[in-house]
Design goal:
alpha/beta, 34% helix, two-stranded parallel sheet, single chain, 8-stranded mixed β-sheet
Length: 316
């Protein structure tokens, strides 16, 4: 894939297959500082909406991708390095993209700003919205999401309920569980009641599968996840790893592509192989060179090797 500033991937997604990411805010500007975040600690915690990156530049890159490269993708996803609804013109961006292509468009959001009517209206043209709701009790919310001080979980749930009333697309609610943080019977009871109010189409259950922001954020076992899935009912499923067969990317500098992807989130060699359409053997020499030069570093998590951006990297 050619050089882009705001687009990255396609990357393997456990929910979306081959997903082309579109960054709407600079790295780790967010309403939360979640303990499990795989792309690191929040650098600017805010609820201030503004045009963080120029609308026309984003739309121009999407247009160029569709016209020039266009490796097969399943979804175009607004998300990436921070909270996309912080971009005050996300509604214009969604409208502009929908006018260019029929590829389904998703918004991956923590849902924190859906209490604002303007934010709810901005997302109406999306095909799928994937909000998160990791805790319902105020204490659990503070512990796992570490939100901007003025945010309250009651108001956030009310926003999700109101959005469901007007949104015609699909809502896939994600809950990420951390051991001993948001998995108590009391929290799960409250979660089930909140879900009944929100009425999402699907409930995606997740736990810590890549190196988290805080090392003490621990995963639940498969058995524990299965018990929660049963408790939450037929709409709930445990997200499985990406297992499709992606097509080869074209016209790309392999090292630059690796750097762009790893700047957004840590991945294993197998993840990179599936997402880029290259064999692990073909990628191995590039990985070793980038590690040797200090561009990326390796971390071990749950016995697996993950690669992530090392020193600050200037991406085109």
């Amino acid at each position: 894939m050619k050089s882009y500033r705001y687009l990255y991937g396609p990357v393997p997604s456990r929910r979306l297959g081959r997903s082309l990411g579109i960054d709407l805010v600079p790295h780790k500007i967010c309403t939360y500082d979640c303990i499990y975040c795989q792309i690191g600690k929040t650098t600017q915690k805010t609820i201030n909406r503004k045009e963080y990156v120029p609308v026309q530049e984003i739309l121009g890159e999407v247009r160029r991708f569709l016209e020039e490269d266009h490796p097969p993708v399943d979804y175009l996803s607004l998300g990436g390095s921070g909270e996309p609804t912080l971009h005050s013109e996300i509604g214009r961006i969604i409208k502009g993209i929908k006018e260019m292509t029929s590829i389904p468009l998703t918004v991956i959001t923590n849902g924190a700003l859906l209490y604002e009517q303007a934010v709810r209206e901005d997302l109406l043209m999306a095909d799928v919205v994937l909000p998160s709701l990791d805790a319902v009790s105020p204490d659990g919310f503070e512990k796992i999401n570490r939100p901007y001080p003025s945010l309250s979980i009651e108001r956030i749930i009310d926003g999700l309920v109101e959005f469901r009333k007007i949104f015609k697309g699909k809502i896939w609610l994600e809950i990420l569980f951390c051991k001993g943080v948001n998995d108590s019977p009391e929290e799960l009871d409250k979660m089930k009641k909140a879900i009944e109010r929100i009425q999402p189409d699907l409930i995606h259950l997740n736990t810590v599968v890549r190196p988290p922001s805080e090392e003490w954020a621990m995963a639940l076992s498969q058995k524990e996840m299965e018990e929660i899935r049963t408790f939450l009912g037929e709409r709930a499923s445990i997200i499985s790893e990406f297992d499709r067969h992606p097509s080869f990317l074209t016209e790309r500098d392999i090292k630059d592509e690796i750097l762009k992807i790893l700047k957004r989130r840590p991945l294993s060699l197998a993840d990179l192989s599936r997402g880029m359409g290259l064999s692990e053997k073909e990628l191995q020499n590039h990985i070793e060179s980038l590690v040797s030069n200090g561009n990326i570093k390796m971390r071990t998590f749950k016995g697996l090797a993950f690669y992530e951006a090392g020193r600050e990297i200037e991406l085109p």
